Amino acid sequence: MSDAKITQISAKDVNDWDFEADVVVAGYGIAGVSAAIEAARSGAEVLVLERSAGWGGAASMAGGFIYLGGGTPLQKALGFHDTPENMKAFMKAALGPGTDEDKIDVYCDESVDHYNWLLDAGVSFKESYWGQPGWEPPYDDGLMYSGGENAAPFCSLIPPAPRGHVPQMSTKRTGEQGGGYMLMKPLVETAEKLGVHAEYDLRVQSLVVDDAGRVVGVASRRYGKDVYAKARRGVVLAMGSFAYNEDMVRQNAPRIFGHPAASIEAHDGRAIQMGQALGAETAHMDATEVAFFCDPQLLVRGILVNARGQRYITEDTYPGRIGQATLFHQDNQAFLIIDEAAFDEGFASESATPELLLQPTWVGETTGDLEVEIGLPAGSLQSTVELYNRHAAEGSDPLLGKNPRWVKPLGTPIAAIDLRGRTGGFTLGGLRTDVDSRVLHVSGNPIPGLFAAGRCTSGVCAGGYASGTSLGDGSFFGRRAGVSAAQETNDHQVTASARRANPMPLG
Amino acid sequence: MSDAKITQISAKDVNDWDFEADVVVAGYGIAGVSAAIEAARSGAEVLVLERSAGWGGAASMAGGFIYLGGGTPLQKALGFHDTPENMKAFMKAALGPGTDEDKIDVYCDESVDHYNWLLDAGVSFKESYWGQPGWEPPYDDGLMYSGGENAAPFCSLIPPAPRGHVPQMSTKRTGEQGGGYMLMKPLVETAEKLGVHAEYDLRVQSLVVDDAGRVVGVASRRYGKDVYAKARRGVVLAMGSFAYNEDMVRQNAPRIFGHPAASIEAHDGRAIQMGQALGAETAHMDATEVAFFCDPQLLVRGILVNARGQRYITEDTYPGRIGQATLFHQDNQAFLIIDEAAFDEGFASESATPELLLQPTWVGETTGDLEVEIGLPAGSLQSTVELYNRHAAEGSDPLLGKNPRWVKPLGTPIAAIDLRGRTGGFTLGGLRTDVDSRVLHVSGNPIPGLFAAGRCTSGVCAGGYASGTSLGDGSFFGRRAGVSAAQETNDHQVTASARRANPMPLG
Prior knowledge:
The structure is a homodimer. Helices cover 29% and strands 17% of the residues of chain A. By secondary structure, chain A is of the alpha/beta class. In chain A, α1 (30-41) links the parallel β2 and β3 (46-49).
């Protein structure tokens, strides 16, 4: 088996199994640890195979948002009303087009339960809300808007509630041990207490399949040698996105090509390809999360224009929506127009992220001067600012519906920040799975013995994104993958013992 | 084998082969007939399996554009200068992001040869150029711009040349026997002369694979029975797009969901799934051609605005670019703003397509009235028209670069045509193939014995589109599929006899 070859391996060709467990989980990030915990609680002996030298994956590097709602204890304690129906409506409107409605329905219906599951596993959320615009809370606050629920156009259509839940950090400012680490650490400790065993420094390469087409193990490479792990019940793939597989990105999500962000190099798409080699279906391979590298404290105080000098998105929405709008729909061309007073105010904000506080690229005494400096079409920026200012004088923004809190006529001197190309992100497409995290073949049937969760699958996001949906669906459908794998038997029957052994029934 | 099951079938399980040939071609549209011709010329016995009762596929319904250039005899005769380099530059700029550059290079380098190949097979092109805006020539003219080469932004970057070649029709106005039919008819006659045999009313369902993983035939359904066809050298998939597979569209190209157009129901994605069942890679599954249902004779004479009352694309470009810009980037929201005089002029144009000549939805004495009627944000349309008119008075359009021929201030009374949702199209993504039309496995290696071309593959279009690229790459890479399949042998060697028998060497 060479490193480059991605194909299924016949169980007949495996002479010696190096490891054996009921459930083999590939990848020890958020989806992997959640699967491991639930598989173990379902009575399975669990082995996790991890490529790097330690657990964590992209999750432990992340800010730590988990997208939860429908009335979590944290939302309630902080005075926010939310329902599963409002949460569903928002997710279907904001994360599409083409969302998997069944996945969103179950995700929302069981979101409060999932919050409690995290608490039970030792994750804690500080009872405080962060209401400033920004990518994430700069301190250890536990709740923040993370998807644009409170901005146009959604705020007037669906009752908004903040759903970005952040595990409490050990340091005041986000440090090395950010929210993602504070999520992963208690989950891994929980898995270890349940007897989950992990092997590190081992690259999972291919699936091992028996004559009936059932996945019965995985083949890996470790220190230049082939290593085989047998899975008596099932294999869970939880190996992350394909953001770092240049060929796959070029073929599927070319707009993000060359600009991976908020991801790790281990996200090489291998799990997706391993599934595809068995005929697995994929979904929404073009979808990507898009970071926008400018601080929201500046964005909300200016107007964002495209290469035609036109506004295109309300500046006070979730910055990930601004990133997607810019990369997908404006050819990655954006300029922030902001006057001196607004710039100074935003720059001084304590909630800004220092490296996202950009200096003006051009400054003009008038909008006309600035337009020429930037090189925008004649009259375009002047026309845009004139219309904006006319309404702003009355505190309104009929064009895009920015919150009156941030609407103020632009004065002079006026500056522009060049935001062309300041985007990056990770991929959201992957293996198509059902709500029980079974990997689906192109025939529509599950592939026996194969389960997946996290960013190697297409989850709750089809096109749009909200911060926390990756740790959210990775943990949620990771749990389901663990339960499903533990219940899988060779005769496709759920055994009574597996049912009895499951202390937290799926549902 | 059930109708719904898409999986590979083991050759060991096939007791009786109903048909046998060197090369089996699935689908008798443009890619299939081109593959059949070249396979036969390469010395192979060829069998074509077609789902419907006759040859033709979507091709025979099409207007018939074939995207050719680089200096074809027709381009030269009509006084247009073109080079393979200009053609490559345009296609890479207009059909991306993420185009397959190897495919575009070979397609352009051999485009003149491909033109001659079509001529040799009996396709004829009338030596006349149609220079009016429109979807296709209303008469039997042989050449027209079909991709926006002569419009902004391309016209000032890459020397433009028209590349939409239309086979001469038998009727003056496009009738039942349009350009697509006049392309298919001589090609099928050529295939028949070469001894190609066709079987009809037979749905190809699955690939048959031997123990070594080589494709050795196909399984089909005919009148409720399983039918097996053995391919001694190779199988060519040429079964069209997945525009009519609702599930696949929802999972991959949700923006076009519910709006298939310029396609046929046989385009059910089966060939793609058959390849995927064997581990084939796919590419650009989100890409779609998008028709825009409004006559260009109206479009060029007005201004097109989005739901924010802003212009977003030059109105005189290829209407398929307008369709894509509207569906992909403006949420399918568009309004054509046109004054009475311009409307009357466009409406009276002899080159308009009657069913695309829409009546105004709203009329206003002033732009302000019209803005209210449509329900656009306050001041937005007035601001747009004011800026447009100011420059139009001088015959220029700095915002989008519309050709001065069509730039004229909008007067009153002024009308708007509601173009929201007036889009439809077909899918462009599919199996990933190399320049020899070999279907690639996710491992990057070709799947032995399997070839594909046409809209079940990802061709020269990754994101954008130009009319004629589907018949163009379908025929071009169809030919290559035929040659490759005929040369395929069980020991992966090209036989000397196959080489000698090929009267038209590849490349």
